[in-house]
Amino acid sequence: MPPPVTPAADDVRWQPWYYLGLAVLALSILTAVAIFTNAACGSGSASPASPSSIAATPSATGTTVQPSVATPEPSPTSPASSPTSAPATPTAGTAEPSTPRATPTEDPSPLVGCGLLAPVDQDHRISRDCVVGPLVEVEGFSLNAEAAAAWNSMKADASADGIDIYIISAYRGYDVQKQLYDQEVAAFGPDQNTSAKPGHSEHQLGTTVDINDLSGSFGDSPAGQWLQQNAARYGFVMSYPPGREGQTGYAYEPWHWRYLGPGTASAYLGSGQTLNRFLGS
Ligand SMILES: [Zn+2]
Description:
single chain, alpha+beta, 9 helices, binds zinc ion
């Protein structure tokens, strides 16, 4: 008859420190699992929890060259170029840091050829580096040389008639136009119709001048009237006449005159079309 099994006094399984050790070991395992799980969330899925870090991503790489297969024009320094090929949603005025898709993307408008008669308008753009050179300085502004010669001739003849005309804006490069456009949108919203988007301005061509006064009443002034009667003979035409906003996309701008050359200017006036349609946009 075997002796009854009784716990040996020296069996470690029955010592209090044995159970204490087991408890410490279990607690350690649980702690390790918790730490590992937390670390995985913090590094692998941080983006959804921190939209600011998403919004920062495009700008952090936006200054790098982003060869785009969608647009033929290079934009090596475009801050608007998105490293992602997000759908074109040019909603610069409503961009919010919490919505990465609102980051301005490449302009999807059709690209038109660069030249004196480029049909650039709100729906058609010229390349970022398009300018109809050579540019010369006139009254402190840069202007296409042929247009400048015509301007000087027109100015002299106007002066002989007692009319003073002077340039208040001429060539504006892409980046300058972008600044102006952004300011207009900030002040008046994305539907404003006085400032062209960068790449869509006739001023970028270097063949267009703003004269005397940026107000609608300029059209009724002696200088405004003189231009409407005479400017085409020198090759200048008013791009945005009154009552044609639906076709031009712009409010009446009696101060904004584009040089086409005398022959083309005369043909345009005889066409009865808006300038953008006449030029083929
Ligand atoms: Zn203008």
